[in-house]
Amino acid sequence: MRPLLALTTSAALAAALGGCKGEPLDAPWCGDAPDTGLPPTSESATWWVDIQPLVEQKCLRCHDEDAHAPLTFETYDQVAAAQALVRDAVLDRRMPPWLAAECCTDWFADFGLTDAERATLIGWIDAGAPEGDPAVTGDALPPIGGVSRVDLSIMMPEPYTPDPPDGTIDENRCFLLDWPVEEEVRVTGMAPRPGAREVVHHLIVASVGAADVAAIERRDADDEDAGFDCSGGLGEFPTATPLGGSLLGGDYPRGIGSVVPPGSRILLQIHYSTSSDDPPADQTSLDFRLDTTAVDASAIVIGNAAWLVGEGMRVPAGEADVGFWYQFQPLLFTGGKPVDLQGVTPHMHRYASRMRVLALKPDGSTTCLLEIPEWEFGWEQPYWFAEPIRFEPEDKLYLECRFDNSASNQPDGQEPREFAWGDNDQDMCAAFLSFTHVDP
Ligand code: HEC
């Protein structure tokens, strides 16, 4: 993938060459369809046949003994003891933390639950969470996440002990890691290995080009501890190219690769979460799968350059639903040729409530590329499509973000105040579509 976060320049060009801000699209959000309830399930689901394989596939990577997640789901007794919490979190779609709506499209390495799986879990709990017979087990489901081959491991240069601001438990910290590869390679998969798993909540990894390294090194040097505060995410560094997010990591689909030129560095943003007075030090490593050839992915940056300046994206204090939308034909990115869309990475901060990305055909039909019914800044990650989605030169892209700046959606109970586009305590509205050329 080419730099994804170079919104300032590329979106400014896109806006100058035919971007326009119209009325919000009249098409409904797929997640707003009337709730028809959960599908019927077999009443005889048991832990050993139905639930254990599902929990192992969709929950255990984060809910094993060493993990940050508060509950351990390794045994029947552990899950049965937490059944009321599990029921609530699954019904409410808080868990697993997969933000993309299942009604939008099919995803690759999807660790969300389908409605049928939610129904099975909830139906099992409602039936008294029967254990069944340990001699009669269900088939294991294919694992999600993890890289198939580790060609390079790099580690944070020194340990860091999380130190959230007073009165809070969360901290976002960035670290600059060396990239010891002297030729141009493609990253075709990435998986993190958290050092102190009990404090590492989430992370995002990007490569950064030489143009940003000096600025990042200055930020790092200005802070006496390892790394530096980066609560606005990677959006402030124009050459940052996301290589992955989420603790699960994994191979990219379909042999896709992201070019990392020699001289690049790796920017690792970790969201630490801890309420301990004496948290452990963390020194996280990253495992990469590398190839010299791959299907190179590029990125379309979706956003309106007009939002970046002045009051372009003004969200008044107290307003509970303020929307921004933008549609354009991304000819500059695609060279006016058909392309295959491969995945999408959303980027907003804490005040955002929902987002959607659609492809619009000239005949008025739409294709859902991403819908996030309830945004959570803490769980930002790329979403790859299960199959590539063909995008023709005459098609348009549509992005819509909505923000909640009411009193009920303020960090740490602050008073609402007006904000606009910006880092940290401001917000953003952007998405990065990765694509490959059909006829390279
Ligand atoms: C990507 C990591 C990840 C995955 C996958 C995951 N969880 Fe969690 N879970 C967490 C973290 C971290 C927390 C702590 C609360 C937080 O930070 O949001 C949590 C908290 C919870 C809680 C307690 C808090 C609440 O919101 O009710 C429940 C219950 C839960 N998870 C159930 C599940 C179940 C069931 C699955 C699988 C179907 C699952 N989780 C999959 C990371 C994960």
- What percent of residues are in strands? 25-35%
Order of helices and strands: HHHHHEEEEHEEEEEEEEEHEEEEEE
Q: Ions, cofactors, ligands: which are bound? A: heme C
What is the CATH first-level class name of the domain at 7-17 and 296-437? Mainly Beta
Shape: globular
Question: Could you characterize the architecture of this molecule?
Answer:
By secondary structure, this protein is α+β, with helices and mostly antiparallel strands. The protein has a domain at 7-17 and 296-437: Jelly Rolls (Sandwich), CATH 2.60.120. The protein is 15% helix and 28% strand. It has seven helices and 19 strands. The chain has helices at 7-16, 47-58, 76-81, 83-91, 115-126, 210-222, 331-334, and strands at residues 152-155, 170-178, 185-193, 200-208, 228-229, 241-245, 250-251, 256-260, 265-273, 285-291, 295-296, 298-302, 322-328, 339-347, 352-360, 366-372, 383-391, 396-403, 430-437. Strands 1, 3, 7, 8, 10 and 11 form a six-stranded mixed β-sheet that branches. A hairpin with a 5-residue loop joins strand 15 (352-360) and strand 16. Helix 2 packs across helix 5 and helix 4 runs antiparallel to helix 5 (115-126). The longest helix has 13 residues, at 210-222. It is globular. It starts with 6 loop residues before the first helix and ends with a strand. 38% of the residues are buried. The model is unreliable at 1-21 (pLDDT under 50). The structure holds heme C (HEC). Heme C binds next to helix 4. Heme C binds at residues 58-59, 61-63, 68-71, 82, 85-86, 88-90, 94-97, 111, 113, 201, 246-247, 273.
